[in-house]
């Protein structure tokens, strides 16, 4: 399918992307325009319109939905006939709605033209309830896209299912530390809330056990109870405040695996879920009776109702939204202003843009992912920037973006994907610089293929930048030649470029030589990887200084 803006006189036979309202009625999305439609559109003053041209291998949104819906619907799930761009997915019987959110997220990443939204999983639903909506956004899609999605779905069971709401018997273990009336009241409050939350799911609390709050006693009791009950819920006498705290240490000694070792909630982090043979062991948060924890309830539902559980079932956003809270008078009187300790008023604010989008054809493979000192080559430049005074950091990806971004997942930096990377490095430079906050005085351009660049050298470039001057270009230099990285003041962003091998001849560096400031460094800092021989040198772990001293 090809989409574009057409002169209205050339739109005959084209497909509408959106509803168009006319005095005579509405031309609906997906409608193929006729000569009569064109006449009415011209009478309404329309001169140009964005429409689609379909090919022989394209399917309408409705046909695409008719192909996709059966692939994602499992047991006890039905779906409505597609209408416009939507298909509603419906429970065929009362039961528990079952789906894995990580798989839904993966499905929604398969194509920006298709989306699946569901109700919260592992909850009770009734026959006829809408549990999901499947949408295809454009009026038509390529058959190849559907075949690709179908292939990606082929390695697993259907995404959505309704399971029978079976009654499950659960045992409760109290781990006693104080063994007094206050602790008993605490246990009772937690159990009352558990009964209220989980009885509607079919959980029946039919047995109670207790033991001292010690590693050996908890381990022995859990092992005993797990041999008799499929679901074991621990109500602790003390919080589990460390991965090796009492209850956690006890579980590690006797379970087959811990599939959830905590949740990122400040006032109830110590939810733990483990598996021992066929039993699920759930360590409830110590403060469960005092706080709202939808994530705890959700994970307990999954553990209780899913036949087999593993770590992927308990992936979650790493931020739990707080309930509205109010400061006490004492807290309000003792508020502290953070001392960031980074800048006084004279220090420049410099961003860093790491250019990691190119194919690197001269190296004959993706050089940025070659392992150097146990990590991908491009991570050397990333880590140097992160350790430096530069902030914020932007990494521009493009070619093989997903592979690179996987290594950046746990670093708090900004990742920008350049879909036009094949058009050259200038597209990455523009993308990076337009994202730099206006509060920054300038930005460093750092090629990702420089494994020896250091935070110390980056800091020297930043130190050489004079905040009081407007137009500045700070350039790395070695033995009389200009090299990367380079630092451009914000007034020069429109001209910004890397320092190429012929930078002494490049017009932009000649025209602005009046305010170029060179920062000398050693040859090894300037080393960049271009050719297979460079990669061979790196992977042999030779002495870098020895190479550059020859």
Provide the fold topology.
Blueprint (H helix, E strand, L loop, with lengths): L1 E6 L7 E2 L3 E3 L2 E3 L7 H9 L4 E6 L4 E3 H12 L4 E3 L6 E6 L3 E4 L2 H9 L4 E5 L4 E3 L4 E7 L3 E3 H11 L7 E3 L4 E9 L4 H18 L4 E10 L2 H12 L4 E6 L9 H9 L2 E4 L11 E5 L2 E5 L10 H12 L23 H5 L16 E7 L14 E2 L2 E2 H11 L5 E5 L3 H8 L5 E4 L7 H11 L6 E6 L7 H9 L9 E6 L2 E9 L17 H5 L4 E5 L11 H8 L4 H6 L1
Parallel strand pairs: 15-16, 15-17, 17-20, 21-24, 21-26, 24-25, 27-29
Antiparallel strand pairs: 1-5, 2-5, 3-4, 6-13, 7-8, 8-12, 9-11, 9-14, 10-12, 18-19, 19-20, 22-23, 26-28, 27-28
Helix pairs in contact: 2-4, 6-7
What features would you describe in this structure?
With 550 residues, the chain is of the alpha/beta class. 28% of the residues lie in helices and 26% in strands. Strands 25-24-21-26-28-27-29 form a seven-stranded mixed beta sheet, sandwiched between helices. A hairpin with a 2-residue loop joins strand 27 (473-478) and strand 28.
Descriptive terms for the model:
globular, 6-stranded mixed β-sheet, alpha/beta, 550 residues
